[in-house]
Amino acid sequence: MLRFWRATINSRNGLAFAIRSEQAIREEVVALVLSVPLAWLVGATVMRRVELVATVVLVLVIELLNTAIEKLADRLTMDHDPQIGRVKDMGSAAVGVALVMAGLFWLFALAERLGAF
C-alpha cells in the first residue's frame, strides 16, 4: 500500500510540474475539462461520450511523454545535436498524430449527432 501511495504522489508531482512548466500541457488540461460537458452534447451514446473524452486524455498522455523526452534531452545537452533534434521531432509527431486522431473522433461524433451517418 505504501508503494501505491508513493507512486500516486510521484504522479501528482509530475503532473503539477508539467502544468506549471508547459503551456501545451495547460492547454490540453483545459481541453480535457471542456471535453467532458461537450462530450455529453456531441456524443450520441454513453460509449461515444467516453470515447470522446478518452481521446483527449490520450492526447494529454502523449504530450506528457513528449514533455518528459524534451526535458531529458535538454538535460543531456543544450547544444544543437541532430539526433536529439530528431528524437524531439518524433515526440512532437506523436502528439500531432494523437491530435489528428482526436479531431477525427470528434468530427465523426459531431457528424453522427447531426444525422450524417
TrEMBL record:
Binding site for ATP: E22, E70, K88, D89
Single Gene Ontology BP annotation: phosphatidic acid biosynthetic process
Residues the entry annotates as binding substrate: A24, I25, R26, E27, E28, R49, E63, S92
Keywords annotated in UniProt: ATP-binding, Cell inner membrane, Cell membrane, Kinase, Lipid biosynthesis, Lipid metabolism, Magnesium, Membrane, Metal-binding, Nucleotide-binding, Phospholipid biosynthesis, Phospholipid metabolism, Transferase, Transmembrane, Transmembrane helix
Entry annotated with the keyword Oxidoreductase: no
Stretches that traverse the bilayer: 29-46, 52-69, 90-111
GO cellular component, one term: plasma membrane
Positions annotated to bind a divalent metal cation: E22, E70
Stored Gene3D superfamilies: 1.10.287.3610
Subcellular location, record wording: Cell inner membrane
Catalytic activity from the UniProt record: a 1,2-diacyl-sn-glycerol + ATP = a 1,2-diacyl-sn-glycero-3-phosphate + ADP + H(+)
Catalytic residues in the record: E63
GO MF term list: ATP binding; ATP-dependent diacylglycerol kinase activity; metal ion binding
Cofactor note: Mn(2+), Zn(2+), Cd(2+) and Co(2+) support activity to lesser extents.
EC number annotated for this UniProt entry: 2.7.1.107
Source organism, top-level taxon: Bacteria
Family of this protein: Belongs to the bacterial diacylglycerol kinase family.
Name of protein: Diacylglycerol kinase
Organism lineage string: Bacteria, Pseudomonadati, Pseudomonadota, Alphaproteobacteria, Hyphomicrobiales
